[in-house]
C-alpha cells in the first residue's frame, strides 16, 4: 500500500496550499466582517486553476479526480472554510450534471461557465423549507409543456445562488411517486429565477446562501438531466462523491486547529513554562492530531473509492461525519487551549469554532450520515460469519 502522492498530486497540493497562505488566510478574518461573497479571492482561485476540477476535458474542464479535489478542499479549508465553500461549491452544483448529463449537454450548459476569463458559478438547489433531510418531500414542480419544462417552486439555503449563472434544480415530475418522481434540471439564470432572502449566519460568513424562487421558469426539454425520475438516484450519487469534499474542508479546518493551538501552547507561559508542557494540554493536542490524521485517511479513501467507481456510500458517510465531528471537537479544544484569547475575535480560534459547526449540518447532517452508514452496516451484517455460532432465533434461543 502506497500512501505517497504522485508528482502531479503533490504539485496540486502545494499549489493549493501556497494559494491559501497568500490569498485566503491573511484576508479571511477581515473579509468575514463584511459578510459577503469574497469575489476577488474566488476569481484568483479560478485563475489559479483551483475551481471546476472535476469537469471532464471534453467539456472544457481539467478532468481531475475526486482525490485531487480533496487536496484543494483541505488546503483551502485550512485557510477559511467559508471561502473553501465558495470556491468548491461548483463541484457540488455541477456534480449531478457530470454524473447524469450527456457530453453534448455539458458542452452547451457547463463549458461556457468554466472556460471564460471570469469565474462563473452554479448552484445546487435541493433543499426547501419543508424538505431538508427528507429530499423526497421536495414540492418544486416541473411540468412538461411541448418542448419545454415549466419549473415552479422555492429553494432555500442555496450556496452561491445570488452569484450563479446555472441552477441545478431538483423538481418533482410525478409528486405521487415521492423520491421516484424526482427529476433534475439545468436552469440558466433568467428573469423567472428570483433571488430571495440572503441568510445571516453564525459562521462561514465568507460564503453566501439565499432563497431562490423559480417562477414558471421555462427551460428547453434538453435541460432535463438523465430521464424523468432519475433525480433522487443522481442526488444520492452526487452526495456519495461530494461528501468527501466536505470531509476534506473539515480535515483542513481540524489541522488548522492543531497548528494554531500548538503554536499558542508553545509560546504562552503560565506557572513559569509554556502551557503546552502541561500534560492536560499536550494530551488534548495529541487527540486533536490523531483525529485529524484519521479524518484525512478516511477522506482520501472515500475519494479514492469513488474515483474507481467502487460503491462508497458507507465510507463517504463515515468520512463526512467523522471529519466534521473532528473539526468541531478540534475547534472547541483550540478555543479551550487558547483560554480567554480563544474567545476573542482578533485571534483565530473563535472563527474556526463558528465555521466548523456548519460542517456537521450541510450536505446531509451528521445524523443522516450515521443513518446511511448504519443502515449499510445492518445490511452487510446479514452475510457476515463472525465464527461465533450462537443462535439468535429458533426455539432454543433465550431471546424468544
Ligand atoms: C450554510 C448552509 C449552506 C447550505 N447549502 C446548500 C446548498 O447549496 N444546496 C442545498 O440544496 N442545500 C443547502 N443547505 C441545506 C442543508 O443541506 C440542510 O440544511 C440539511 O440537509 C438539513 O436540512 P434541514 O436544515 O431542513 O434540517 P432537518 O432535515 O429539518 O433536520 C432537523 C434535525 O433533525 C435531524 N434529522 C432529520 N431527519 C432525521 C432522521 N431520519 N434521523 C435522525 N435525525 C434526523 C437532523 O439531523 C437535524 O438535526 C445548506 C444549509 C446551510 C445552513
Question: How is this structure best described in words?
Answer:
The protein is α+β, with helices and mostly antiparallel strands. It has a domain of 150 residues: Up-down Bundle (Butyryl-CoA Dehydrogenase, subunit A, domain 3). The chain is built from eleven helices and ten strands. The strands form three sheets. The protein has a four-stranded mixed β-sheet with strand order 1-4-5-8. Strands 2-3-7-6 form a four-stranded antiparallel β-sheet, with helices on one face. It has a two-stranded antiparallel ribbon with strand order 9-10. The site of flavin-adenine dinucleotide (FAD) has 20 residues, from strand 1, strand 3 and helix 11.
* Assigned CATH class of the domain at 232-381: Mainly Alpha
Do you know the CATH architecture of the domain at 232-381? Up-down Bundle
- The average pLDDT is 96
Could you say which small molecules are bound to this protein? flavin-adenine dinucleotide
Separate helix tally? 11
Amino acid at each position: 500500500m502506497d500512501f505517497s502522492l504522485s508528482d502531479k498530486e503533490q504539485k496540486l497540493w502545494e499549489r493549493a496550499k501556497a494559494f491559501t497562505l497568500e490569498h485566503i488566510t491573511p484576508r479571511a478574518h477581515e473579509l468575514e466582517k463584511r459578510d459577503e461573497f469574497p469575489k476577488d479571492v474566488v476569481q484568483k482561485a479560478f485563475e489559479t486553476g483551483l475551481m471546476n476540477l472535476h469537469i471532464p476535458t471534453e467539456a472544457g474542464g481539467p478532468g481531475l479526480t475526486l482525490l485531487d479535489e480533496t487536496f484543494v478542499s483541505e488546503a483551502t479549508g485550512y485557510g477559511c472554510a467559508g471561502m473553501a465553500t465558495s470556491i468548491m461549491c461548483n463541484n457540488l452544483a455541477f456534480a449531478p450534471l457530470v454524473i447524469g448529463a450527456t457530453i453534448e449537454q455539458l458542452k452547451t450548459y457547463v463549458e461556457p461557465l468554466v472556460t471564460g476569463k471570469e469565474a462563473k458559478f452554479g448552484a445546487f438547489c435541493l433543499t426547501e423549507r419543508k424538505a431538508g433531510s427528507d429530499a423526497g418531500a421536495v414540492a418544486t414542480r416541473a411540468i412538461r409543456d411541448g418542448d419545454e419544462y415549466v419549473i415552479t417552486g422555492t429553494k432555500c439555503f442555496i450556496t452561491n445562488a445570488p452569484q450563479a449563472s446555472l441552477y441545478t434544480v431538483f423538481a418533482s415530475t410525478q409528486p405521487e411517486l415521492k423520491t421516484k418522481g424526482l427529476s433534475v434540471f439545468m436552469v440558466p439564470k433568467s428573469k423567472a429565477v428570483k433571488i430571495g432572502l440572503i441568510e445571516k449566519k453564525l459562521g462561514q460568513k465568507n460564503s453566501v446562501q439565499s432563497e431562490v424562487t423559480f417562477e414558471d421558469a421555462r427551460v428547453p426539454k434538453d435541460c432535463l438531466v438523465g430521464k424523468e425520475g432519475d433525480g433522487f438516484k443522481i442526488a444520492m450519487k452526487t452526495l456519495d462523491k461530494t461528501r468527501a469534499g466536505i470531509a476534506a474542508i473539515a480535515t483542513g479546518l481540524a489541522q488548522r486547529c492543531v497548528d494554531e493551538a500548538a503554536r499558542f501552547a508553545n509560546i504562552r507561559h503560565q506557572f513559569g513554562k509554556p502551557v503546552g508542557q502541561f500534560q492536560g494540554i499536550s494530551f488534548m493536542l495529541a487527540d486533536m492530531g490523531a483525529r485529524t490524521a484519521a479524518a484525512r485517511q478516511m477522506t482520501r479513501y472515500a475519494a479514492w473509492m469513488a474515483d474507481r467507481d467502487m460503491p462508497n456510500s458507507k465510507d463517504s458517510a463515515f468520512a463526512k461525519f467523522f471529519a466534521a465531528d473532528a473539526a468541531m471537537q478540534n475547534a472547541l479544544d483550540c478555543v479551550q487551549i487558547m483560554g480567554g484569547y480563544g474567545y476573542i475575535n482578533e485571534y483565530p480560534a473563535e472563527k474556526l469554532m463558528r465555521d466548523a459547526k456548519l460542517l456537521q449540518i450541510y450536505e446531509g447532517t451528521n445524523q443522516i450520515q450515521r443513518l446511511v452508514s448504519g443502515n449499510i452496516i445492518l445490511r452487510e451484517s446479514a452475510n457476515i460469519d463472525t465464527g461465533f455460532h450462537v443462535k439468535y432465533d429458533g426455539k432454543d434461543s433465550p431471546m424468544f
